[in-house]
Specification:
14-stranded antiparallel barrel, 3 helices, elongated, 6% helix
Length: 423
Amino acid sequence: MPSTNLNKNGHGLRVLIGAVSSLLLSAAQGAGFYIQEVGTPRSLGTAGVANATSTGADAAWSNPAGMAFIDQDQMFAGVQLIVPKVEFDPGVASAGGDDGGNAGIPTAVPGFFYVHKHSDRLRLGLSLAGTMGGGFDYGNGFAGRYSTIQAQLGAVGLSPSLAYRVSERISVGAGVSILYTLFEQQIAINPAVVPTVNGDDGRLKIEDADDVGYQPYFSINYQFNDALLLSAVYRAEMDVELSGDVSVNNVALPIGTDKVDIDWKNPQWLEAGLRYRYTDRDTLFFNAGWQDWSAFSENQLAFSGGVLNPVAQLDRNFKDTWHAGVAYAHQTARGSIYSIGFSYDSSPVDDEDRTFDLPMEELFKLSGSYSWETNKNLGYSLGATLYLVGDAPIDQTSQGVRVKGEFDTNAILFLGGTIRYVF
């Protein structure tokens, strides 16, 4: 339970503010969701395994040093649809309520990547991609409504980058993502804890909580020979300082608070990749990486604009994660390319600390894509990645109400298409 600094203005107000502050513990959890599939064929079609060794236009975001291998100006543009299937099966619901149905919120994410050959050694890149996000809507009658009814978080990054070819074998690259982050959440207020106007649930809403921040990234590539490429990519930690509106409805004790600031750190990220072309038409990809989610674990939440303006320090007990994967691509005699991929991500949270707004556990990713060309300058691709998430058991008590159960369906499907143009 977070510690909360409150003015002593009555038991009912203290309970309400305490409930609001503690519920924001789960609100910030929605950030724990990096999107590694950015819609391009070597990303969406390999479960993100080929990102670290990309030498196409998407290297502007995933591996800036890889842009040094591009001989002509190149562009990728496309869109991917994220379709979650998230269904909770409550075993214990002390205040009643339903299972929330399919709580996943479908989302469309655009992507744009461009690389310009400035000189024999220097390349310039620009990308626009959705880099983080997730959304759940369980409905007003959900058994866990006193923890979360609805939560959505998204981040889109505009990322200028550059690459420099140090030698025939070594290239380095760097960029910075200018990230816009938006967060919103709704939580029911238990009338048994805080008096409401008509005896029904109250409602806490956080709306338009947003921020613009900056996340640098770097990479280095070493090409042993024409067949073998080794790479390393690092993304720095980033401070997120959201400011948004707060409204509390159907509560008999008005507090007047109308603003909230939510601060956390997006974790640093280190990844290594290996690409091996063992024939002219067949390529293997390997990757492994680490993400510093323990740095994200501690947040601060501050209310303002009201009679009571509490500040809460939260700790969600997140831990660092690791991931690894393998992928394969084959080019046919006609020039089209098939790819498949598999990867694994460990869970950032133990069962006892899991919340309804981000019911993540370990991830198994299966992926595939098909790419083809209409001429030497223009090509297309279609791809898909399926996230298979564990049953993510939850046993959580919020506002005096216990909900226990697990997700009997917990999966996310990514579908995307891309156009590639070489100038």
